[in-house]
Amino acid sequence: MVFTCVDLVFTYQNQLLLAKRNTKPRSSWWIVGGRMAAGEEPKATAIRKAWQEANLKNLEATRFQCVGVYSTCFAVRHQPPQHHGSHSVNITYQIELTLEEKEQVKLRSDEYDMWRWVEPNQLESVLSLDDELDRALLTVVQDLQW
Description:
Blueprint: E1 2-12, E2 15-21, E3 29-30, E4 32-35, H1 42-54, E5 65-74, E6 86-96, H2 99-104, E7 112-118, H3 123-126, H4 132-142
Parallel strand pairs: 1-6
Antiparallel strand pairs: 1-2, 1-4, 2-3, 2-7, 5-6
């Protein structure tokens, strides 16, 4: 089954937020996001996920700028049977935060082990070019509007 997710790239000046997930299908560095609910508009999902995942309340829909639509495949998934894997279509938005909003970010501990703000030129020290999904994340970052 293919499902739709909304991913969020929070930026502040020349930095972006990377989140280290602790759940499948991606138990490593990625960006914040999650699945759309049936009947939900993409920007409504983005607003909901910013609040649920990052503690950012009441962000205006006009601030979410579409970066692109990407496709990701995972060998395993969180739900049983895990070995069936999963495939998602990811609508990805960039949101430029204020300093106050950046300081307010607090990711869910049940889904993320840690997070950090990085400059794009620091990504290769965090990600592996040998990993297909890390390369996918680098593609998203290259598509950002700075």
